[in-house]
Please model this.
Amino acid sequence: MTKLKIGDKEFSSRLFTGTGKFSSSQLMEEALLASGSELVTVALKRVDIKSKEDDILKHLSHTQFNLLPNTSGVRTAKEAVFAAQLAREALQTNWLKLEIHPDPKYLLPDPIETLKAAEELVKLGFIVLPYIHADPVLCKRLEEVGVAAVMPLGSPIGSNKGLQTKQFLEIIIDQSNVPVIIDAGIGAPSHAAEAMEMGADAVLVNTAIAVSQNPVQMAIAFKMAVEAGRMAFEAKLATPKNFAEASSPLTSFLQD
Amino acid sequence: MFTELFDTYNWDEVKSSIYAKTKADVEHALNKNEKRNLEDFKALISPAAVPYLEHMAQLSHRLTQKRFGKTIQMYVPLYLSNECNNICTYCGFSFDNKLKRKTLTDAEILKEVQAIKELGYEHVLIVTGESNHNVGVPYLKNAIKLIKPHFSLVSMEVQPLEQPEYEELMEEGLHTVLVYQETYHKEDYKIHHPKGKKSNFNYRLETPDRLGMANAHKMGLGILIGLEDWRTDSFFTALHLSYLEKRYWKSKYTISFPRLRPAQGIIEPKVIMNDRELVQLICAYRIFNEEIELSISTRENENFRNNIIKLGITSMSAGSKTNPGGYAVEKESLEQFEISDERSPMEIERVIKSNNYEAVWKDWDQVLM
Model:
């Protein structure tokens, strides 16, 4: 399978993961190690960046993991830029999952503030991965301001409802010049495989692994599904036939 | 303002419509795939839903895990003052209650902060009575300034304020404001609050609107269970919540379920809500609103709290003191109510762990304000 390149980094695993909702940091560590994930997102609001002994960060200090701090909790571009700078300083990475959802109920991203913040953060030297609605035009606009990848949602965060935005994701994947990471809503390995078969470059999964009865086993299931889906995409899926082969062709008279 | 919507409802009509709900209504609410509405909520809190309690608990458990994961957020109250000019028939701090009044000084606040930090807390809830002269906005502003550097999240439960006053306190780092209506029964509200600023029912009812206009990060609603029929009061809370969520969509919401506890010089509850009913109410809220935060305090006893962790609750306090100075300064001063669960935060963390959940101490950062 081909490696995925984002910014200056290469990834063998196309399964990105979240770190919330686990019943313990220990279990989070075990599950994420088992998932093979090389990029894990951490909410700035959950970690104590002043402390070397932060429980979550301690469990993520493995060479396998690259940290992707996220700005969950901010409501505006201004707050996001401020939080991003603190995250960069504290966690020693210029990678950032830009999340601006002023709506705390459905956690849906604000496209206007996100575009504004992305533009500014790119200028400040960040590798920006914005979490957005599956909006193809917004993806192009973000590409224009220099984001490293786009992260459109499959369905609302934590909903486990799969690729409800499929029609738009297809357009985004078709049009994009930067990697497309499907984030949010992926509730089962079959959803992840579906996204990869469609040609998504990676998926980000959290709730489905963290809340399962056996997070380690579920992490492995997602790892396999992502690999299977990617392999199938690279091997070129046979296209489903829309028409049966007619026994009495209507155009046979054209043969001569 | 919510008062306009509220005035189109009639308490007695709402009450009889809840008690008229049937098994079919309950099954319809439970089996639905789409979002549940206020009529479904009525069915879920009705007596007709009692036989479905286990089913409700299973559903509530699943929905809560999906949204909040296997985590419980931890917070602790910090009582700054028990001075109060209101007469509330159910409250230990009531103006007509003869007790030694105490308002913490700056040095005392910091002493309390130190003691609370040693318990491991990152989220503190400051509480006062209503005494505008001694514990008004300037006092609160100063207190938040003192407290903020030590905690990642500061919440407040004090008298209702004006919108610009909320804005002023949020500038200082205030995140969440709790303001409980106590009861939505307008006539009986007057009986429970005969004197003081709190006796103005509508002013209190419009407080969440003012908070929403002030762009509060989070606000808390609730009733004091024991004053009036809890089912009818809970319907009005849900109505209030639905109204607020649509109008002030940038704010988060949390609900509490305080049951009236014994305290010196207060009334006996008019209505007793048993444990099964409280579980029913918690599950009904979760099934009705998958995103709402639900909080349980140390008013509830050990056994109940041990078992409620998995049923829909998302935040808990532990080791709480309900008297100003209770952690370090003056441990024996008169408390607002007697707590029922005296276990330490560390013991509660162990209980949470033994349920296969994680106690979350920090879920906010001052840099996000």
Chain B has one domain: 2-368. The domain at 2-368 of chain B is CATH 3.20.20.70 (TIM Barrel). The CA atoms of residues 9 and 236 of chain B lie 9 Å apart. Chain B has a mean pLDDT of 93.
